Amino acid sequence: MAFETVIGLEVHAQLLTATKIFCGCPTAFGAPPNTHGCPVCLGFPGALPVLNRHAVDLALSAAMALGCDIPEQSVFARKNYFYPDLPKGYQISQYDKPLAEHGYVDIEVEGKDGKYKKRIGITRIHMEDDAGKSIHDGFKDSERYTYVDLNRTGTPLIEIVSEPDIRSADEAHAYLTVMKQVLQYVAVSTCDMEKGHLRCDANVSVMLKGADKFGTKAEVKNLNSFRFLKMA
């Protein structure tokens, strides 16, 4: 039997702002742990978020560069879940009314019959705030404890969700390569993967060739290099 891989990617890019998305704390990388926080991004009772306009401008630039439709209205929503590095207990994201929809990325891939071009659809782009960072190794008691650094909490992200149009690891690699180039070219993000400025979740399934229904999806989260994406 001949099987076909079906892949959709969720790309998370940190926007190139000096301050966080809903407060005035700095986004600079490399500060001592837990020094870039305030009542807003740490989720203290009664603290109210104020949207960073520059973050919205950058997100709109990304949407236009990727050929998206931009509706007149988009809405933020709470995504409730518990995790040690999410002090609010919820993420401020977008759900049914995202910032932008229906874009695309054109890729070129070396196939077994030579190079071919393909258009990968973009379902949506939405804005959200990032969580903190859980550190599972590097300390003498890491076997017993996880350390948490909340400096990253509240940094502005866009999540770019592709259509399930990708059919191979090579196509996924090409898609992320072009995506990174576009975001860097329009100065939306540094896309520095070593600093966590560009991360990717891969949704992967397999189906019989010619089938009209996708197989069961598995999600591989927080891939932070092109090599890891291709391996996954």
Description of the molecule:
The chain has three helices and ten strands. 16% of the residues lie in helices and 34% in strands. The chain has a six-stranded antiparallel sheet with strand order 4-5-8-1-9-10. The chain has 232 residues and is of the alpha+beta class. The radius of gyration is 19 Å and the shape is globular. The mean pLDDT is 94.
Compute the average pLDDT.
94
Helical amount = 10-25%
**What's the story with the biggest beta sheet?**
6 strands, antiparallel
Structural class of the helix and strand makeup? alpha+beta
* DSSP strand content: 25-35%
Q: Give the uncertain stretches in residue-range form.
A: none
Judging from the principal axes of the Cα atoms, what is the shape? globular
The count of DSSP E runs of length 2 or more, i.e. the number of strands, is 10
Total of helices: 3
**Spatial order of strands in the largest sheet:** 4-5-8-1-9-10
Measured on Cα atoms, how large is the radius of gyration? Answer: 19 Å
Oligomer: single chain
Note the gap between the termini.
22 Å
What letter string, H or E per element, gives the SSE order? EHEEEEEEEHEEH
Defining traits:
34% strand; two-stranded antiparallel ribbon; 232 residues; alpha+beta
Brief sketch in words of this structure:
The chain is built from 3 helices and 10 strands, in the order βαβββββββαββα.
